[in-house]
From TrEMBL:
It comes from Neopusillimonas maritima. SUPFAM superfamilies: Thiamin diphosphate-binding fold (THDP-binding). The lineage of its organism: Bacteria, Pseudomonadati, Pseudomonadota, Betaproteobacteria, Burkholderiales. Belongs to the alpha-ketoglutarate dehydrogenase family. It is an enzyme of class 1 (oxidoreductase). Residues 601-798 form the Transketolase-like pyrimidine-binding domain. This is oxoglutarate dehydrogenase (succinyl-transferring). It comes from the Bacteria.
Amino acid sequence: MSSQLESLSNSYLFGSNAPYVEELYEAYLDNPGSVAEEWRNYFDQLQHLPAPDGKEGVRDQAHAPIQQSFAERAKNNAFVRHSAQSDLAFAGKQVYVQSLIAAYRSLGARIADLDPLKRQDRPNIPELDPAFYGLTESDLDQVYSATNTYFTKSETMTLRDMLKALRDTYCRSIGVEFMHISDPAAKRWIQERLESTLGVPAYAPERKRHILKQLTEAEGLERYLHTKYVGQKRFSLEGGESFIAAMDEVVNHAGENGVQEIVVGMAHRGRLNLLVNIMGKMPGDLFAEFEGKYSQVLIDGDVKYHNGFSSDLSTRGGPVHLSLAFNPSHLEIVNPVVEGSVRARQDRRNDEEGDQVMPVLVHGDAAFAGQGVVMETLNLAQTRGYGTGGTFHIVINNQIGFTTSDPRDSRSTLYCTDVVKMIEAPVFHVNGDDPEAVVYVTELALDYRRQFKHDVVVDIVCFRKLGHNEQDTPSLTQPLMYKSIGQHPGTRKFYADKLIAQGVLSDNEPDDMVKDYRQLMEDGQKTVEPVLTDYKNKYATDWSPFLNAKWTDQADTAIPLAELTRIGERITTVPDNFTVHPLVKRLLGERQKMARGEQPLDWGMGEHLAFATLVASGYPIRITGQDSGRGTFTHRHAVLHDQKRERWNDGAYIPLQNVSENQALFSVIDSVLSEEAVLAFEYGYASAEPNTLTIWEAQFGDFVNGAQVVIDQFISSGEAKWGRQCGLTLMLPHGYEGQGPEHSSARIERFLQLCADNNMQVIQPTNAAQIFHVLRRQMIRPFRKPLILFTPKSLLRNKDATSPLTDLAEKHFMPVIGETHDDINPEQVKRVLICSGKVYYDLMNARKERERNDVVILRIEQLYPFAHKAFQAELQKYPNAKEIIWVQDEPQNQGPWFYIQHHLYENMTDGQRLGYAGRSASASPAVGYLAKHVEQQKALIEQAFADKFKGVAQSR
């Protein structure tokens, strides 16, 4: 024993392989009988060796001293004597065996049997060959320690048995990637779950029958639609039927473990199948859509494979509400929308861990690898403001992408799922032709998500029997692949034959299942039972108060002066032991004066009072953006930081969370550096939570460019296509201040081009009272429409843009603000300047300098919907004005000019002429040179006040 002990302590086990010894020692401390005899004897003697501090070792001595003891003995050779060569060789081989185990855990997926078409190359991986480590045939029957594996309850195994167990677990129908995870507990959890079953489930005959039923229904629907609606697009699931078996397990297994709501986001492939065979949509309703019937309620509607649906299902664990999100053809853009919807539902339930509401995202292989919003969404997963307790991802991996792409051209990574390694999510690759393995890894992945509150991926490797759509001929570009597909009998047939061979089914039962399902299709009957029709979810949102409400510009948004002063005092007071930055202290002092009516309110105070009065009235507020706590232009200061403590050590105080005892939640989040995913997340949140004022703020309005798809596909058109009301507010800093082409324009013209059917509000407020009233109006009115606010930069501190406190108590939002100069005689007015935004103050100051009392200036605060009555009432005050001039900072081909013309014409009288004063058309939003900006700004002001206006364009 002495020789063996010495050889172990002297071997390189204590060098680069020391972590292995440490794991053994930890296991020994927990249970001495859990390690092999030679190691147990070694550690027994080690316990009584002198520790580095000279004290006698004890059985539970800490890990660090043991590690130090190893290092000291290796350095000074105090405990080392020459050992028998055989003992040293054995110890070395044990390390090699351990390395082989680690290699299978890391690389086994590379040679797993994942391809139903048997076309994937299975590479030669030297690290998976015992010979790579110098292990020979004679070593296969040698017994080695199996302490760190879960294949057997025994502490030892022969290498031959160990190799078989490794190959069975990691190289058959399941290939797992998890060794990139840094959490040792997570890795051990996966190892134990997989290795204890050798990656093979032990399902009872009834469970196997149920799986076959799911496959039969999945295949049956596709074949029925294929014959009845020839050539119509449906994005068939044929070749990927195991997805339905997986989703059935998602709903049931999640329901067993406490999940009460599931929100699903997915693109086209298999969507109709999910609707009918999992969610219980009536086949007759689907057939009606194929036959051209449509909703009379929706303005425009959408194609059938974009529409959403929801139902309440009875699962093995009780009722589960299942929602399928509406989704455009931009595929993965639905991901953050689903995450936002889930977060809203979790917040409503106070489900901080994500135990009750779960997001499920279904991806295509090419889109998952190819679209950047996937990465942006993954990056939200573990953040405080956007986390949802882990997302369950399923990839329907057709191995071909969307049309004709070769994997060599569709991505630069080995697997389409490699992007998830950025957040250390495990990936379970599984052969779609092994439906039991698909269900097994689905169950395992759901348990992982519940245990570790982390994203997890099931990659179902399958194929696509038809083309990208049913009008495509994929063999034109993939002849050999589609020759293999043509010879494939189908997953259902494979599995049915397997169950017959096992004696689970009789020869005729699979065909009877097919016939029974076909009859359901012929009758148009529901295939999912039971779908609960009388289930009442107490957390469901009641949208009925917001439906069918007529548009109105006005709402009672005023607040009594006494209440404004009281609330103003609360939001400018900090705890006694809180050290405020000197600049913030001065700002709070000024805001206290504003709250008492001693000085006019600036923009930041107007905004703060709007927030404070809303939360005091029971309306929660959620505002996110890249600088939302402080404000990009340091105007907000919603989050105050104790100058003697760091933020991450609770050194923050949020006054708006301390307005009143029973107030609603105020949440302000400095977001990740993303526009597309974060804006889509907030759209999803607002779509699921109408009673919360949900705001997304761009750092600069220009940056909303990065989220254009969210604006086009959801914000502007969601109600027309899907009937989805949404009260999301966008704050987009906009204004020409000489800061160049990337910090000037929020692209007003793009939003205005999308306006129709009262789909949203486009507003550019110009003073503190206006922002106060418009934010309150957004919640008080009985409907929910997106609100696009073009917020200022220089006006944040411009004294001309302040408002008296009485304007908050006595007025309301004004879509059009008329002339405010008292010295102007309406009869003498010859010219009316009409504008929106900051340029108003430039015009006002220029008129004052020029003493032009024959010119009035009107402000259009609400660009859409255009307030015709209010504008006409202002214009009619000046009957002798013949020149109507639109003035804007933006270039002529941008800004509101092309949108606003027809609204101005509609309200002009005979003899009046319309003109434009502003920058010339430009390919860039703004110039980059400050001197040129100043020159242009001066020129447009001169143009607006020229004695003889040269730019007069047309008469009415």
